[in-house]
Structure formats: structure tokens, C-alpha cells
């Protein structure tokens, strides 16, 4: 399809065109890449929509992420909002697996006309995960979705990546007592705008409340960020299966977003993210020179020589750089 | 002085040669750099000493860092250990200031024959802070110091930097109640092997105990790292002015270090740090191409175009990279 026509159809909300466009940005082929760049340029230039709310969501397997997205997404659709769900999964590049490959995990939402669920690609180059994901987010935004949920499993740098392409970052946790509480990845609390303790129902209700109080306490130990009004970041309990706490959580997200819009943090953050990704792309492009097989071999050889005490990092780096010149 | 002779004198523990060598690695002049590289190579090849214990110490102004270093350092010297104190201060490159410039802050320790205090340089290139600091650490180790304390103020990436060049990382805190507790920089708890709450004396004793308990609780919420035996990372109270808790803290540091030596984490971590710095040096060398004034101007221009929505990060990055080729 011609790029111009594709852009028109996406802007008009055509789902098949959106899916084809996401497939295009996911492709590693050079001609596809050129088309994708042109398409995104075209859509950015239109830019006549109010920005969507991009919500990042992290949580380890077992916390009930799919159930949460299903219930939360259905609630939003029930309020007349259009919801897109994307997944960022750097591990799929290695495992060939896909965290959203099975749409049956979100049965209701996948049949909902106002929702769009995009599984993460089964295979892809590791280095391109960030670029591909934020381009898919931009495409969904151009297609007029009001809320874009970006799901990530807690693997490697994926949370940072998702936090840098979304407006709000949620951490979903399961209730846990005592030693089980050690599950939060170091550094993740620094990124969370809200912590939601799921499964606050049945036998787990009391544990969820206690877990929530523990994390509220831990959040208070962290330094206040300029982008947070009083009371944020905050921890709350929800139950995806009983569909409780979801409306209250959404109210808080809206209040936070509203505050950030009024104070300029929302737009400022978007501009900052755009600069960030531009600089990252340039840096990654430069560093890609080290990915050539012969350069990798030389890096590995020198790294082991340094690790073994045979030479210094400084001297070995100078040797490597002279080879790259 | 000839490099060979300088290496001999440093290895023999000559302080003037050590100071001259550190001045050499701090210099930005190309001929000094070449001499520094050769000297470090020479000292690495000797490598006939047991490794020193390198301790990183972070804490914001006002927690009593100098007083702690003075009391802790004097205690170590009293046990027959030789102690070097270095400072990593990326801010000094901008401000021209120096966190250890005034040795009078450590009056006793600066007169102690078994201690060596090196102020951070008043001016330096920002990019070279990490390399210069780890080279100074290597020089002190070659000079036979048993314990090397690397002090940092909590500015920017300085904690990560110090954690990557030391074997233990300590976070020094002051007692605080209620809202004041929000002072810990996000992400720093992930690096700390021990949190020491200072000023556990007089009126502040009870507050210090409570602060310590709060942080013990927060540390338990974080995931256990493989390099930690049971009970670590841990929080303890100390009083630098009353000189209490210091021996207990040192016992814990020794126990942790002993465990890591026996399990191989100590040596493994050193090798990992060497690989890390080698790869960092190569990457920084490549990225230094962006530091040329005309490249910086072009980066800034394109970043603003992207931030303003005029183009995409992807397209702008391609433009920049084609210019760098």
C-alpha cells in the first residue's frame, strides 16, 4: 500500500492498516524500515489529535497481569474509551516466546470493538525492541486510541524502556507475607508512579492490605520527585477478579495526569522522551560498530586479558579504539 | 622520573611517588596520559600483593561523612592497617570545588603515618572522573594500602561509578523522622551492602535506632542478591563522635568480605569490574566523537526538532548517523 494512503487509513481508525503498519515497524528488512520511517514521519506531521494516555504496566508472572488488563481495559471501554494493549518483551527475541501471544488470556477484551490487543512479535532482534515498541505506541496514538497500555515482564532493562515511552508507570504486585516480600526488583520503585497490589479478595484480602501498607511505607522513604503532587507515588489495593479498586485506581491515574498536564510536566516529559530516544538512537547507531563479529571477538579477547590481570582496562581500550579508527 | 623507577618506589610505599603518580593520572596532557598508561601497566604486571579491601562510601552533606572517615580510619590504623582515602566528585569539574580539599576536616587521620588522604582535584574534565578515580585506586593498592576508602557525594552517577570500583559499598545516613526520611536517592538502596545510620548518640540515639529499623524493613523488601549471605544487605547504627558501633560495623564488613572471598564472589566481582571498565572505556571512546562542537550543535538542533514534533527520533537519528559516517 502507498504510505500516504496507509497513513490516512490509520488516522481514520482502520484496524487492519494499523496491524499492517505495526508489522512494518517490526520488520528488520531495509526496505520495510525505510517505509516505516516515512510512515511515521507522515503521521507525526498530521499530529492533530489530543495525546493518548500511555500507561506502562510491569509485574512478574503470577501477579495476575492479564486478568488485570482484561478487567481494567473492559472498565475503560465501558466508559466509552478506546484502549490499545501492547507488549514489550525483550526475552522473546531469545526464547521465541511471546507474553501476549495467546489472546485467549484476555477473552472479553479481545472481542471488544473499542479495544485493540497486539501480541509481542515471536522473534525479533534484541537491539530493536525499544525502537519497535515506541513506534508501535506512536502508531496506536495516531490511530486515535485514548489509552495505550504497554505491558512488560520484569526482565532486564524492559521497565526502564517502558517508563521512557509512557506517561504513567504502574507496578502490579501480588499480596505476600514475610520473606516473600523480597520480590521487587531493585531500582523499580524509583520508576513507579503507582503500585497496585492485586488479588485483594477472599483469603488474600488481609495480606494484600498489609502488603500495600508495607509498600506505602517504602515509597515514603524515597525522595519526592518534582513530577509528583502530594501523595504520589502511591500504593493501592485492587482485585481484578472481583473488579474492585479499579475505578479508584483510574481516578488516581486521572488526577495525577490532570495535575501533570496543568503543571506542564506531561508535555515536558513527552518532549524529554523524544530527545532521549533520538540521542539513544544516535548512540546505539554508533555503538553498533562493535557488533560486527570480528569486533566482538576482539572485544572478548581483550576483556578476558583485562579480567585476568594481564593488562589494564585503559591500555586495552586504547588498543581497541585504534582498531576501530 | 623514569616510569620503572617510579613503579619501584610506589611498590615500596613511597608516598611522594604515589602522590606524583596520582597527579599524573589526573592530568589531561597527552604525554602525561601515555606515561600514566605505561606506569599502570608496569604496576599491574608486578601484581604480587594481596588485594586491598576497597570500600565505597556515599552520603549526602550533613550526615557526618568526614567525622565517620576520621573515626573509622583511626580505628583501622589502630589495628595496624594502612588506610588510603580518596574522593570521587564529578561536581568538582563544574564547580571547581573539592569535597576533600580541606584536610583539616580530618585532623587526626591526616597526621597518622599509616593513613594517606588524597583530595579530589579542583578541576578536571567531567568525562574522565571515573577513569582517573579507578586509576588512583589501583595506584593506592599497588602502594600496599590494606583498606582504600572511596568517598563520594550523592551526585548524579557517582554512586554507580564508585560501586563499580569498590568491593563494598556503604551508605551513610543521618537519623531522621517522618517526612525527612524521604532523603534516600532512588536506586541507591540497590547498591548498598550496608547502611550505617550515623549520629546514634545523645538526643538522636532513639531516632537513629528507629531510622535504622525503617531501613532494615525497606532492605528486606528488595530482592536478595547472589553476592549476599543471609542477613545482608544490613542496616546498623554508629556514632562517629562517640566512636561506637564502628568496631561492630567493621566486623560485619570483614564477615561479608570473608564470605565473598570463600565463595569466589570477591575475585569474580573484581574480574567483572575490569571487563566493565574496559567496555566502558571503548564505548566512551566511540561516543566521544559526538563531543566535537559541530557535532554537539547538530545533535542539539535535531533533538529540539524531534521534541517539537517536527520529525521522529528515528528519522533524525538516521540523519545524524549519516553525518558521522
From TrEMBL, chains A, B:
Molecular functions (GO terms): GTP binding; GTPase activity
Protein name per its UniProtKB record: Arginine/ornithine transport system ATPase
Similarity field: Belongs to the SIMIBI class G3E GTPase family. ArgK/MeaB subfamily.
SUPFAM superfamilies xrefs: P-loop containing nucleoside triphosphate hydrolases
PANTHER family named in the record: METHYLMALONIC ACIDURIA TYPE A PROTEIN, MITOCHONDRIAL, METHYLMALONYL-COA MUTASE
Domain of life: Bacteria
Classification lineage: Bacteria, Pseudomonadati, Pseudomonadota, Alphaproteobacteria, Rhodobacterales
One cellular component term from this protein's GO annotations in UniProt: cytoplasm
Gene3D superfamilies xrefs: 1.10.287.130, 1.20.5.170, P-loop containing nucleotide triphosphate hydrolases
Family matches, as NCBIfam families: lao (TIGR00750), PRK09435.1 (NF006958)
Pfam families found in the cross-reference section: MeaB (PF03308)
InterPro entries on file: GTPase_ArgK (IPR005129), P-loop_NTPase (IPR027417)
